[in-house]
UniProtKB/TrEMBL annotation:
Residues 70-287 form the Peptidase A1 domain. This is Peptidase A1 domain-containing protein. GO terms for molecular function: aspartic-type endopeptidase activity. Residues 1-17 form the signal peptide. Transmembrane segments: none annotated. Belongs to the peptidase A1 family. It holds the Pfam family Asp. It comes from the Eukaryota. SUPFAM superfamilies: Acid proteases. Disulfide bonds join 101-108. GO terms for cellular component: lysosome. Keywords: Aspartyl protease, Disulfide bond, Hydrolase, Protease, Signal.
């Protein structure tokens, strides 16, 4: 009994030690749920050197498709400037709008902007760096400053964390989005400009983060619950899931878990099995 109580206590303490970042979700507008658009989106995001021929209708549809994203809060600088960002495990760069973007840039003007001059720890550079996503592009300059997850100063990088201060957000892709920028959480090896991710810097500090892992809990019940879920850093809250041991795929399979999209892509037979397990129809809608 004593051993059981000690184990239970240590488990509870481990869960309480996690840093939790609440995340919000904006529902998908299914009027723009177009299979051809989704297929093109996947090709652009995951196929290296894929050639994209843009047209206005396609960009407009993808812009609306972005309404299925989960986002949360980070802070940059000293004193901290607060931003809502999309936590994206499918990319590896952090960017937020820049105070120097022109007023004619509609996407930039509608969101919170970072001002390096207002931060005592910011290092301004003039290193230009473009970013391209499957659904849009942007241009900006690399700045260095402290980046913190949530509004707590515990899980922060040092002041040498690089990020892109976006001065150009052309088109409608980021227009009217509920988030200001994107925080890439994939491997630093695929980051543009060779800039390490904020998570990689936090994970390197074992005194603060003994377990180099992050996890997402995404709430399905959006309409009855305003909380979209949470991002946990340096650990996993096992109370959010249960596994019955059902095996879907035989043998080793390489897969990508991409928090920046609501899509599941793969061999049709395997995808259909996954849909059956999670209770989704052929349209991808959870019943």
């Amino acid at each position: 009994m004593t051993s059981f109580l000690l184990l239970l206590l240590s488990t509870c303490l481990g869960i309480d030690a996690l840093w939790r970042v609440p995340i919000s979700k904006t529902p998908l507008d299914r009027n723009y749920y177009n299979k051809d658009v989704i297929a093109e989106y996947l090709r652009q995001k995951y196929i290296t050197n894929y050639t994209f021929f843009a047209n206005y209708d396609y960009q407009e549809q993808l812009s609306n498709y972005l309404n299925a994203q989960y986002y949360g809060t980070i802070q940059i600088g000293t004193p901290p400037q607060t931003f809502k960002v999309l936590f994206d495990t499918g990319s590896s760069n952090l960017w937020v709008p820049c105070s120097s973007c022109p007023y004619t840039d509609k996407a930039c003007s509608q969101h919170q902007k970072f001002d390096c001059a207002q931060s005592s720890t910011c290092t301004l550079t003039y290193q230009s760096l473009p970013l391209r996503y499957g659904t849009g592009s942007l241009q900006g300059y690399v700045d260095y400053d402290v980046v913190c997850f949530g509004t707590n100063q515990r899980y922060c990088t040092n002041s040498y964390q690089g990020f892109i201060c976006a001065t150009q957000e052309p088109g409608d892709t980021f227009l009217n989005t509920p988030f200001d920028g994107i925080l890439g959480m994939a491997w630093s090896s695929i980051a543009k400009g060779g800039i390490p991710t904020p998570t990689s810097q936090i994970f390197s500090n074992q005194m603060v983060c003994p377990e180099a892992v992050f996890a997402f809990y995404l709430n399905r019940d959006l309409y009855n619950n305003t909380v979209g879920g949470e991002l946990t850093l340096c650990g996993i809250d096992s109370t959010h899931y249960q596994i019955n041991g059902q095996q879907i795929v035989n043998g080793p399979v390489t897969a990508i878990v991409d928090s920046g999209t609501s899509l599941i892509a793969g061999p049709p037979a395997l995808v259909q099995e996954i849909q059956q397990v999670i209770g989704a129809g052929q349209s991808g809608v959870i019943d």
